[in-house]
Specification:
Length: 116
């Protein structure tokens, strides 16, 4: 279930064409990354990151898990986000290919902070 908006997290859609994809004639690849921003108060969280590609919404009645290309938890640094999300897109752009990083999320979820 890709493309959902998660409360207190930012959702990032990344589109870039790698050199290999261009050489083989493959289409653009769209990757979806989720970054869980740190909770405003200790212990006040509604999500869990059980793996690098899964996020679980913690509601009492029915916890639900969703799979994405990559999920990063509250302890992620700006440098690690750039390395996994932005670096390949920027390198491809410098070689003349188009690339887009699209940040999506509710107001105050950390989109601008993540992009800076």
């Amino acid at each position: 279930e890709r493309g959902i908006s998660l409360e207190r997290s930012g959702l990032f859609k990344i589109s870039s064409q790698s050199i290999r994809a261009m050489e083989t004639g493959a289409e653009e690849s769209i990757k979806v990354f989720v970054r869980v921003r740190p909770a405003a108060r200790e212990g006040d969280t509604c999500v869990e990151v059980p793996s690098e590609s899964t996020i679980t919404l913690l509601n009492k009645a029915d916890p639900r898990s969703f799979t994405f290309d990559q999920v990063v938890g509250q302890d992620a640094t700006q440098e690690s986000i750039f390395s996994s999300v932005g670096k390949a897109v920027i390198e491809n752009c410098l070689q003349g290919y188009n690339g887009t990083i699209f940040a999506y999320g509710q107001t105050g979820s950390g989109k601008t902070f993540t992009m800076m």
